[in-house]
Specification:
CATH class of the largest domain: Alpha Beta
Number of strands: 13
Largest sheet: 8 strands, parallel
CATH superfamily of the largest domain: Metal-dependent hydrolases
CATH topology of the largest domain: TIM Barrel
Radius of gyration: 20 Å
Strand order of the largest sheet: 1-7-8-9-10-11-12-13
Order of helices and strands: EHEEEEEHEHEHEHEHEHHEHHEHH
Number of helices: 12
Strand content: 5-15%
Helix content: 25-40%
Number of domains: 2
Distance between the termini: 12 Å
């Protein structure tokens, strides 16, 4: 059974997408574009603007007021556009083939059937919107195909209203996990963090509901290697406080941190409750070609350090099609059976998630 741990569905991204207003949504989206690895180009001649995405946010700011006034627009063909320094710029955050900048459950289901993916985890990142309702409808419409993750407003997740939303997402809407992004504390000016005792009621609710937490860990308040490692260390300490809550580290680890692990990564390797995503083509593919042979030492070291039961494959579909096809995002790893034996590769490609979510083999 093949389960993609990292896929997305979303309505046209230029709207509110579950936020109170379109402006609220585009603020979140702009923050995610800040510092992104995709090149920014001038609209008039398609030339690259060096470090263009860094101008979207002032990292010395303590809150969303650091977002530059650029009139961000979601247009067509994978492009997000804005106006800055008197010129129009764009980034291909989505693949050029995504003509409408929307990707619904049926579009993902067709891609999965074509490639031979049995199920996919729908990750509920804030840049796409607040999509509990859309995920619940996808789960209802396509039984067994989708595992929906709930989202919450992280800074306010100690409030009863947010905890009740999470209970409804699990008990009424059929969502099986929680997508949690630490960078959302920008909207709290980073006064708190996810391990603050005021959030203990949230984590007890997660435990009570039997949810799996998918962690989007970002270096905050300023994104550096040091701040990322500090937040990863925070996650490891949180996991020791809540050892019965299973976790998945979305986006996995950069090749450099795997091959030359500092102490927080060494501790992560020893933290049994955390599964690590293998999700390389979405970033590695910017500068490397399929089948990504340079990743072989990285996969070998991950396998050596944590074993087959703590790894899971993810694609980041549809975004990954910026660099390769959906099938290639799976096949580069499936070819490495000389590193991970076939029976254990089955765990990485779906078995571990099937165990986490108590999923049986597909019908037929």
């Amino acid at each position: 059974m093949i389960i993609d741990s990292h896929a997305h569905i979303f309505p046209h991204l230029d709207g509110p997408c579950g936020y109170p207003t379109r402006a609220d949504h585009l603020q979140r989206l702009q923050y995610y574009l800040f510092g992104h690895g995709q090149p920014v180009r001038r609209l008039r001649d398609d030339t690259i603007v060096p470090n263009g995405s860094l101008a979207l946010f002032d990292p010395s700011a303590t809150g969303p007021e650091g977002l530059a006034a650029v009139d961000l627009r979601v247009t067509r063909n994978g492009r997000f556009e804005w106006t800055q320094d008197g010129e129009d710029r764009y980034i291909h955050f989505m693949p050029p083939g995504l003509q409408t900048n929307a990707f619904d459950a049926e579009a993902l289901r067709v891609q999965m059937a074509y490639v031979g993916v049995d199920a996919a985890v729908l990750q509920n990142a804030h840049l796409y919107g607040r999509l509990n309702n859309e995920f619940a409808e996808a789960v209802r419409r396509y039984p067994g195909r989708f595992i929906g993750l709930a989202e919450i407003d992280e800074p306010n997740a100690h409030q009863l209203e947010e905890i009740d939303r999470l209970r409804a997402a699990a008990r009424t809407q059929g969502l099986r996990g929680l997508y949690y992004a630490n960078r959302s504390f920008l909207w709290d000016r980073f006064r708190h963090a996810f391990d603050d005792p005021q959030y203990d009621a949230l984590w007890e609710t997660v435990r009570e509901l039997g949810l799996v937490v998918f962690w989007e860990i970002f270096g905050v308040p300023v994104h550096t290697v040091e701040s990322y490692l500090r937040e990863l260390d925070r996650l490891i300490r949180w996991q020791k406080r809540f050892p019965t809550i299973p976790s998945v580290l979305t986006h996995g680890l950069s090749p450099e941190l795997v091959l030359n692990p500092p102490e927080p990564i060494e501790r992560l390797f020893r933290t049994e409750q955390i599964i690590i995503e293998i999700l390389y083509p979405i970033s590695w593919g910017r500068e490397h070609d399929y089948p990504y042979l340079e990743l072989r030492p990285v996969i070998r070291e991950l396998y050596r350090r944590v074993g087959p039961t703590r790894l899971c494959w993810g694609s980041d579909m549809p975004n990954v099609e910026r660099h390769c096809t959906y099938r290639q995002s799976l096949d580069y790893l499936r070819r490495m059976v000389d590193i991970i034996p076939p029976s254990e590769m089955e765990l990485v490609l779906g078995g571990n998630l099937a165990r986490l979510f108590e999923i049986g083999p597909p019908d037929g």
